[in-house]
Amino acid sequence: MNPFKDIDPKKGLGGRRKEDRRSPFYGRFRLIFNQAIPFYEPTYGRTFIKIKEDAVDMLSEVLSLYDTLPDHIKRVIHMYQQKEVKNTRWMIDCFEDEDYFLVFEVLSDVLYIAMENLYFAMKELSIFLEDCHFFVYSTGDGDDRWLDEYSIKDGELSMDRHICDIENIFGQLHFYIRRALLYPEDRTFRRFAVYQVKDNGIFSNFLKRVKKDPDKVKSEAPELFQLYQDYKKLVR
């Protein structure tokens, strides 16, 4: 389900350049971006999307459109040229020097934003972007079980919101593991899911805890024990 599709974009990107504090989706968020397609390793909780080859002739239009995005969106979606960031502290080296690309990353600790504006920005930019598939996970205040799934195919954007079964940082991992188990023929997503699990230090510590005393974990946190069981199915 896309919770933003019936919202008038003029109330966000179209007419207002400030965060819409009246929005039901306005909040204080810590956002993590996990990218399934194209898969890049490592990304450090970021998503990279290249400006596609046939949009290069319209680069001035792309840059102009990006410049019109409100500042609070440009604190989430950053645009770079590879030669500007290669071998710098940004640790991004996925493209050719002349390539332009977007990076999805929250550089501050938290961000106050109406989340539908991220969707509206992607709607405007998607025609210029390569095919991709990524997730946006909130670890903000309050209910942080939601996981937004974005896909771009041939310039068309689709978006769905999922509610994680586990209401903590493990929720997103459990979603990825179960999705990978549900579609075992999708080797690309399976690789993505395994990487997300192995890249999570907190989960690594949890695995040590389960191996040390599985019965105790099963009794005290059955949903986390099920996560462990599903993970074993994924990597066996």
Can you describe what's shown?
The chain is α+β, with helices and mostly antiparallel strands and 236 residues long. It has helices at 59-68, 71-74, 82-85, 116-125, 170-182, 187-198, 201-212, 214-220, 222-235, and strands at residues 26-29, 31-37, 47-50, 77-81, 100-104, 111-114, 132-138, 146-153, 156-163. The chain is globular, with a radius of gyration of 19 Å.
How would you sum up this structure in a few lines?
By secondary structure, this protein is of the alpha+beta class. It has helices at 59-68, 71-74, 82-85, 116-125, 170-182, 187-198, 201-212, 214-220, 222-235, and strands at 26-29, 31-37, 47-50, 77-81, 100-104, 111-114, 132-138, 146-153, 156-163.
Helix count, DSSP H or I runs of 4 or more residues: 9
**Helix and strand element order:** EEEHHEHEEHEEEHHHHH
Global mean pLDDT:
87
How would a textbook summarize the main sheet?
A: 4 strands, antiparallel
